[in-house]
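Need tokens for this chain, all 114 residues.
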Amino acid sequence: QVQLVESGGGFTQPGGSLRLSCAASGFTFSSTIMFWVRQAPGKGLECVSRINSIDGTTVYPDSVKGRFTVSRDNTKNMIYLQMNSLKPEDTAVYYCTKGGFDYWGQGTQVTVSS
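Here are the structure tokens for all 114 residues:
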């Protein structure tokens, strides 16, 4: 069955960096668009990155552009989210999800605070 397992969250001060990982299984990963989505306390879902399957093209919202970088390793069925220059407003639970948004990981907490 489809499984998405995130890891790498934690606590950091403003300006710090964290790298999230997501291990995928149970579907043809190399041909699937993947997303990172976050949910801040009391707020709705926000898609913070998308990475295409074939050419690896990436898309980011303005809120994270220039600070976050998504990448994928199709040989390992993994996607990553490198988060730099973190801000308190980046505090959220981060999820990876696949095209169709039909399967989600359990999420990993990222907390940015001084």
